[in-house]
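Lecture 7 notes: from sequence to structure.

We start with a single chain of 398 residues. Read the sequence below before looking at the structure.
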Amino acid sequence: MKASTISRYEITCAICFATINPGDRMFCFLSPTENSKDCHETQTTSLVWGHDTCHRGNLPPPPPCRHWKRLGRCPALQAGMCAFLHDEADRGTSTTLEKTRWGGKRHFVRNQHKNSVFRIFLMQTYGMEYMTQTKGAIIDAAGGKGELAWELLNLTGAKDCVVIDPRPMNLEVVRSKWKRGMFEPKRTGPVFSKWYPACEEGCKSRESRSPSHIRCFFDSKAFLQFIGPDEKGEEEKYIDSDQWLQDEIRKAKRIIWTTKGLQHEDGSNYNEETTPKRSGPVDTAECSVNFDSSAIENPSIVREILRNCKLIIGFHPDQAAGYIAEFALARNIPWCIVPCCVYYDCFPKRKLQNGAAVKTYDQLVDWLCEKDPRAKVATLDMEGKNKVVYCLADERIA
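Now the structure, written as C-alpha cells:
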C-alpha cells in the first residue's frame, strides 16, 4: 500500500512538474542527485514529492519515518497521514533517544514537548467544556517558567490560568514560536491541529495571553490558612494573613535563581538544612533575566483565585507534589500531578500505609494515591518521569 499525506504548502511535483496545492494528496521518495566538488562527482539523494496520481511502480521507496524509528510509533500513520516508510524491522531502532551529557555533570533527556503531552492529557481527561469554562481558574502549582499555563491559555483556550511559583516566569521561547506561526493549523497539520483548538490561521498576528503569576512558594497549609474558614466555618488563620502573603512574595523576590540552584541575595542557600551549600559569590550571568511581569500581589485577588480554583495541576513540581494533593483534597477540587523527584531528605516522615518510608519514585506515586481515594494513575507518552496521578471533576467527595 502506497503511503501518502496531505500537502500544506505549494510545492512542485518531481514527476509532472505541476504545482501540488495545499490539500492535495502527495507521496515522497528519495531522488538521486549528482554533486560535483573538486572534480570528483558524488551521488547523493534528496527528498522530493509528487502528486498521489503521479505515482509509478518503478520509483524508489520513501525514507523511513523518523518518529517510527525513534519512538516505535507514529500518530500520523494511525490517521493515514504519514508518507514515510514504516518497516517493522526499523521500529524503535534509532539511538537518538539515548541520554547525552551536558557539562560532563549529569544526564538529561530532551523535554521540549513534555508540556504539550501533559496539556493534551488534561484535554482528554477533563474535556474541553470543563477546561474552557469561565468559572474558576486552573492553578499550575510550581509552574516554573509558566509555559504549560501559557499553552493552556493560548493553545487550548482555557479562560484563566494562574502560575504559583517563586521564580520569575520566562515565556520568551513560546512567544517566539507564536510569532513565527508555529501553532497555526498550517504548521501543526490536520493530524495534530485538533490539539490546538484556540489557534487559527493568522493567529500569530495577535498578541498571546500571559498567565497570571502569584510569586511565592506553594504550601498547602499556609494557603488554606490564608483563604480563611472552610464551608463548616472552621478557621485556623494567621494573625494577619494579608501581611503573610506580602512577606512570602518579598521572600521569593529575595531569592536569586541560578543554573546551580537558588540562593538568597546574601549568597546563602534557601532551606540550608536540605540544600547543599555552595561557596563563592553568585554569578549574575547565570541568573534568569527574562521574565513576565503579570504578577498578582493583591491579597484579596489571590484569596479569590484560591477559593474559586476549579483544577490544580503540577508538572514535575518537585517538593510541591504532596502540597498540591493536600490543597485539592481540603478544597474538594480535582487535581493532576506528574511527580518527579522524591526529596526523601526534605520529607523523611512520609510513610505508606504499610509503614514503608517513601524513598523511590514508585513509592511517591503510591503515597499520592493513598492520600485521596479518588486518585487514578496513567502513563504519559514521553520519556523520563511520566506517571500522572489525578482525580476527575465529577468524583468530588460528598
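Confidence is low (pLDDT under 50) at residues 97-110, 231-239, 263-292. Keep this in mind for problem set 3.
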